[in-house]
Amino acid sequence: SIWKYPTLAKVTDLTGHTQRVLSMAMSPDGTTVVSAAEDETLRFWKCFASDGKKKSVKRPAENASRLTASIR
User: Which of 47, 22, 46 is nearest to 36 (CA)?
Assistant: First the structure.
């Protein structure tokens, strides 16, 4: 089941995997959930409506690229 925070209103039940779910993640825009299961499948679930607002994306710091370039 997917629950909306902070109201804890039930959004939907996700059914479809034949074995247990191992991991879940949400898309950057907050509209889609992906689940990975022991049955070796990924399922994409359109669970939430888009609010129409663009969310800011965190960009890596300039120093991070120099650090990454020095790691071999």
Answer: 22
Give the type of residue at 45: W
Tens of pLDDT, residues 6-48 = 999 988 888 889 999 999 999 999 899 899 999 999 999 988 7
**pTM of the entire structure?**
0.59
Whole-angstrom Cα distance, residue 59 to residue 40?
32
- CA 68 vs CA 51, 57, 59, 71: distances in Å: 35, 20, 14, 5
Q: Locate tokens 């959004």: which residue?
A: 11
Which helix (H) or strand (E) element contains residue 3? strand 2-4
